[in-house]
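Appendix B, record 7
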Amino acid sequence: MGMGSPGGPVSGRGGRRAPMAEINVTPLVDVMLVLLIIFMVTAPLLLAGVPVDLPESSAGALDQDKKPIQLSIDRDGHVFIDDREIQISAMADQFAQIAAKSGTGKESPQIFLRADRGLDYGRVMAVMGALNHAGLNRVALVTMGEGGEAAPARRGGRIDGDEVPEPAVP
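Structure tokens (predicted):
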């Protein structure tokens, strides 16, 4: 069967080699694994557009079906809806527009409030009061989890329109 030729399988005339019909998938798998690692590392970095130093919490993440509205307050007290900065004087009007567009109560959108750790507590409460006044009651406070990931807190307040009791403090 062509064992006498040291150059491999020979086909046809002229002693040329037959084309190899096998594909080496090892480099393909290597490239795919590298791309997977790159996307896993960069995806959490793309989530937050406003740099905020979040407090830590041991609460777990929320389950959700619609894209929430990201409301951020940076260290200087500037308020951002998603990545767009809004003026404090126009904050109530912006919240009223969101409520008019998407509804209030159980139909209101989930709002993730991200506030810098060094921020004045009164500023955060003023923003939460404006949200409540506009009828946007589904507010979750985003904290840094134990693993360093940003996650909405599950303790106390309103989650998915249902009351969640405050934890007992000894």
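Remarks on this record: DSSP finds three helices and eight strands in the chain. The radius of gyration is 28 Å.
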